[in-house]
Each structure stands twice: as C-alpha cells, then as structure tokens.
Amino acid sequence: MPAPIRLRELIRTIRTARTQAEEREMIQKECAAIRSSFREEDNTYRCRNVAKLLYMHMLGYPAHFGQLECLKLIASQKFTDKRIGYLGAMLLLDERQDVHLLMTNCIKNDLNHSTQFVQGLALCTLGCMGSSEMCRDLAGEVEKLLKTSNSYLRKKAALSAVHVIRKVPELMEMFLPATKNLLNEKNHGVLHTSVVLLTEMCERSPDMLAHFRKLVPQLVRILKNLIMSGYSPEHDVSGISDPFLQVRILRLLRILGRNDDDSSEAMNDILAQVATNTETSKNVGNAILYETVLTIMDIKSESGLRVSVIFNLDACAHITMSKIVFRYVALTSLLKTVQTDHNAVQRHRSTIVDCLKDLDVSIKRRAMELSFALVNGNNIRGMMKELLYFLDSCDPEFKADCASGVFHAAEKYAPSKRWHIDTIMRVLTTAGSYVRDDAVPNLIQLITNSVEMHGYTVQRLYKALIDDISQQPLTQVSSWCIGEYGDLLVSGKCEEEEPIQVTEDEVLDVLEGILVSNLSSTVTRGYSLTAIMKLSTRFTSAVNRIKKVVLVYGSSIDVELQQRAVEYNALFKKYDHMRPALLERMPIMEKTSTNGPTEIVQTNGETEPSILETKHVPNVPQPANQANDLLDLLGGNDVMPVIQTAPPTKLVSAGGELLDLLGDLSLSGGVPASGPPVSISQPPFLLDGLASQPLFNDVAAGIPPMIAYNKNGLKIDFTFERSNTNPNIAVITMHASNSTEAEMTEFVFQAAVPKTFQLQLLSPSSNIVPALNAGTVTQIIKVLNPQKQQLRMRVKLTYSHKGSSLQDLAEVNNFPPQSWQ
C-alpha cells in the first residue's frame, strides 16, 4: 500500500476546493484511505493518519472511528506518537464514552515516567477530560507531582488538581498539605495555577476558606511585588507586569475578604494602591481595575476607598466614544457598586444619563439599568424625564425593559397620583405594544383609586383614543375608563384642565370603531363591548343604540365576543331591573401592601379585609402531583398540606362571571386537572374575628426578621406580623431577591408544616425575581399555631435561571421565639 499523504499536503489539497461538495468529496476519499490503513494495523503511518483525522475533526467532519487508534498511540513508547495520541484523546474522547476508561492505566504509567514532557502530556489529558472514576484512581499521582520541585510539572499538576476537585470534591483534603509551599514559588506559572487551585478550594468548602484566610498577607505581598517590580520582558503585557496573575490574586482576595474584618483590613492598602496606580489607557489595565472594584465593593473595605474607586469609574465613563470597552467596564462596575454604596454612585448621575445617548447598544443597556437603579424619591421627576425621552427614541429591543422599569419606578416613587397616571399614559402611548402583561390591570387599579382624578383621566384617555387605537394596552385602559366614567366625560367635569365638549353618540362612535377595527385584538374588543354595555346605565338616551350593538355581536364569529353579547342581551331582557346595580362603578381596589399581609378595601364606608370572605371557599381542583410534592416536603406523614390561595379559574369566559352574579346559575365546563381533584377546605382560623378593625398589625410587634434561604444568588427573607383578632395566627411575609446578573423566571415558592399547624399560602406578587436585587417577589404565609409549639417549616423552591430549571429543598427551624410563642 502506498504511503499516505502528509498532513501539510492534505491541508493544501483541501484549500484548493472551490465548493463545499468538492471539499466533502476530498474528505470522504481521505477518510476511506485512513480506515483502510487502520484495518491493516499499519503502525508506521498511524501517527500521520490520526493527525489528519484531527484536522478533519476541526473542520467539523466525523472522526469517531479514530478513538481506539488514539489509545494505541498513547500506549506507544515514542514521544511523537504519545503527543498525537493524547491530543486525539482530548479532542475525540470525553467521560460520556466508556472508551476513555481504557486509557487510565496508560495515564498512570506516564505520570510516573522519567521524562517530564510525557508526564506533562498525561497531566494535561487528565485535567481536560478525566471522569470522576479516573480522577479517583489517579488523584494520588497528581498529589505526588504537586510536591515535586519541577516547576513545569507543578503548574500542570495544580491545574489537574483543580479538575479532580471539581469532579470529586471529597478528595479536596488530599491536596491540602501540598498547598502549603505553593505560594512561595518564584515561577509565575506555578503561582498562577496555585491561586486557581486555592480559589477553587475556597469556593467549594467553608472550612478551606477559613483555613486559607491566613494566607492573605502573603497574597498581598505577592501582589505588591507585581506592582512595584520593574520591567520584565517575560511577564510584561502593555507595560503591566503579569496582569493575568494580578487578576487571579484579586479574585482570591475577594473571596477571602468577604464577611471577614481582619482579612479586609489587611488588603485595604494594596487595593487602594492598585486602584490608583493602574494604567487604564489599555485593556489590561481596565481588566485589573474592574477586578479591583469588585473586590473593594465585596469586602468590608473603608468608605473612603469606595468613594475613590467610584470617582475613577466616573472618569472612565467620560472617555471618548472610541474607548467603548472602557465605558462598558466602568458602567458594569458602577452597576455592581450601586447596591453597596448608592449615594456615592448618585453623585455621577449626569455622566450615566449621558451614556443613554451612546451609539453602542451594550453601553445603552448598561446605562439604562444603572439609571433605574439610581431612581429615588428625590430625583424621580428628572430621571423619568430622561428615561421617557430615551423610551421615545430607543430601539425596539430596549422598549420592553425600559417600559417595565418606568412602571416599577413610578409605582414606587411617584410624587403624586396625577404624575403617576400621566407617566404611565405616556409609556402606553409611546411603547404600548411592548409593556408587560400586568400594565393594564395595574393602571386600571391606579385610576380607580384616584377618585379625584377620574374626570381628568377619562378626558386624557379619550383624547389619546381619538389620536391612535393601534396601541392595544392603551386602548384597553381607555375603553375600560370610558365605560366606568363616561358620564363624567360627557358632563365636562374636569378641574385639572379645560374640559372638552363631547356627546354621548360621539363616545359610542369611538367604542364601536374599536369593535370593527382590524387593529383591535380579541381582548381589546371585549373591553370595548363591556364598556358599551356599562354606558347603558350612564347614557340613558342611548340605550336603544347600545341594545342594537349588543344584539349584533350575539352572532359574532368570535366565541368570546358572542358569549359576552349573549349574556349582556340576557341582562336587557330577563334581568333589566338588576342591570343598574350590576353595572355600577367599580369600588376602590387596594393592592396588597409590601409591608402588610392583608388587603384592606374601603367599600361603602366600611373596612373589610378583602382576602377574607365569610362564605365557604369552594373546592379547587389541584393536580395530584403538586399536592404530593407538598406532602413530601417534610419527609413524613405528620404534614399539614398547604392551602394555596390563587385567582379563581375562569370556567367558560369572562362573560360568565357577570351572569353568575344573578343567582345560583350552574355553569358547566372548566379546566380539567392533571390528576384527581383534591378537596381542600378553608382552614377554620380564617373565618374567625371578622371585625371592622384591621386584621393584622401594621408593624411587626418586636419580631425580628430572618433569612430563611441564601444560596446561588437567591435570598429568601421572612418578616413577621401578629394578628389582632387571633393571637395564634402568625403572618409571615416572604421576600425573594436575586443578586445574580440574570433574572429568575417561573419562580414558585412552596411550604409545608407539621400537621399540628395550619398553613395558608396567598398568591405571590410575581413569578419573576429581577436580577441585581432590582426588586423582590413577596408572598404571604399565614400559620395557625394553637398549641404554641416551636415552628418548623420546609420550603421548596423552583425556578428557571440562565436557561436551566432549578429546584431546591430547605428546612427552616430557626424562627424567632416571638413568632410562635
């Protein structure tokens, strides 16, 4: 058989291919020749064939048939064969394939080889693709090489030890004696890998973290030598001595100094020196400055040091447009800093707002996130003006996040209800198609509660509706508002601005135009039809016209509109005497307070807790698997199942709710449960003590809050209140916050208690936990403890983060005695 072509010739031949089909033909032809050579057990050219196969693998063609040949090359005594064999193993094999276990013995022999380069190849392969079984078998050899005096082997052994610890964390203590002298090494490669190894051990074990805190002075000394050392061509990068090692040391110092006063005090001076002396005109300097800022903000550093760092970041943000990387690093650092030192970042608000006008999308996004983080009650008007201007001119990809941020800030810091309403309407007018789903009900609730603003609001919304009906959320709110307060619009009662003259027929023309418009969605048409129906009690002279409209849509091809119209037509015919009472204005609706457990509604001058009803709660179909999840939380049979309070299921349609008010009408249908229905009755303590006084204390009666869970960036806090009417009821408010850079979606909090208690979970405020502690998700937990026993609880957390679904169980036993005694 003729000698196969060399790798260089194969590369040259493939590059001459003019089309992809021609390249595939060349590859297939060469693969066939390589397979033939493998079948003939040709040892002479095996190394050359595997090298060509690896090149084809890099081009994206299948090369799995060369896996066993790589093992044969590893077993060879020639260094050139071993080099290609180990390279092929790292590229073609992984721990998911059982073939890799066949090379364990070869790696073990090579780790004890007399040649350092062969030992280095074995260490690289183990650190790249070693499985947990292989790591257990070879950890002893790695630990021996970690103690050797050879710098070349020590740095490779340290990286292999990192991989072993990641795969088998219980082997961590094996490497502890070998780490004692690692930081005394002069070789920068060994120092770098040693710092990586120490970082991995500290992140995975609190005991290791406490053990290595005594190394802080030594790390500070190494970092100082790097800064003060002169020019070294071996380590110099853009005029900075070994920036890679500096960054690694800063990360390790951040871990060691977190929540430790002594360690933080030991590193304050060197961090100040790095922050002020690092040259930021090049990328390597900005990388070091970025890590320094994160370290200063994460440890217990001095306040003056923090202010100095923020000033440097502000200077970076002022750099010309050509320095986009610097601006991005500065804004990202300020965004992390604002959580710990809000006032210091607030001084540089104008610089941050200027970055909203940047041409680079990443700069604009960081500036937008930072601007929302700086909003407070003192600057709300000025910041909203800038952010609304940004909302008008920004790209569509920013509008959803910007609109959501404006809603949140306005709800939290609005100086007046008129300003709040005007701001939300401005957002709906400019970015109505991008707002979140709860924007419409939230604005409706805000308008309902602002009794003195009804005339002004309905007039503003009517004008907006005449100008544009393409923004569906704005059209829905306008239709609802006109249906509720159309009589105020026609009467011209508006003290806030000059009233407009409009007739009843003109108002109905606008609403009927929404019904027939191609721009209107089914939901919007439903809002419009309901508004027209409500106006039948406000516009007495237009009742016949409204009857005709309702009658026409009784035969609509849209099932939702048809059902609404049929039910409204039944009101006109059978229950006309009840129509004025059924279609009267909505009462004031109060949102559940973030500091209180209950929702107090003012109805006809009487105060009633809206979440407590005197009527028996009907049985709710609940999936069996969800009930079983809750019953399994405590791992036993002495569990009191949780009663989840959720919005009622809409059985047939929105229109069915209206006819149900007329009497005991049995509506068929419903959403089938995924399992047999679980009958859950209302706990008796919820029916006690319905009085005119507030049900719960507004302020926790001396009960300290507690942290129930803090892991992977998710933090669960409990605050406590005591019932005024029943001292055996403890009301716990769960606050979920997220300190990571990505939001947590599909968040579900579940809880279970022993059966001597009774527990009820109310609906959460949201199922999305915002990133970077930009907001919290709250949920009310009510616990009846008649026997005054110590409270125990198991919680189950389910959420999606960065594309992965996560689930965790935790037991909470450290409740404050005041919460259950």
TrEMBL record:
Membrane topology term: Peripheral membrane protein
- Alphabetical list of InterPro entries matching this protein: Adaptor_Complx_Large_Subunit, AP1_complex_gsu, ARM-like, ARM-type_fold, Clathrin/coatomer_adapt-like_N, Clathrin_a/b/g-adaptin_app_Ig, Clathrin_app_Ig-like_sf, GAE_dom
- What SMART domains does the database record attribute to this sequence? Alpha_adaptinC2
Gene3D superfamilies under this entry? Answer: 2.60.40.1230, Leucine-rich Repeat Variant
Name where it's found: Cytoplasmic vesicle membrane; Endomembrane system; Golgi apparatus
Query: Which keywords accompany this UniProt record?
Result: Cytoplasmic vesicle, Golgi apparatus, Membrane, Protein transport, Transport
An example Pfam family from this entry, by short name, is Adaptin_N
Q: Which PROSITE patterns match?
A: GAE (PS50180)
Against SUPFAM superfamilies, the record matches this protein to: ARM repeat, Clathrin adaptor appendage domain
All residue ranges annotated as the GAE domain in the record: 701-816
What positions belong to coiled-coil segments? Answer: none
Highest taxon of the lineage: Eukaryota
Q: Which PANTHER family match?
A: ADAPTIN, ALPHA/GAMMA/EPSILON (PTHR22780)
State the family named in the UniProt similarity comment for this chain: Belongs to the adaptor complexes large subunit family.
Name the record gives this protein: AP-1 complex subunit gamma
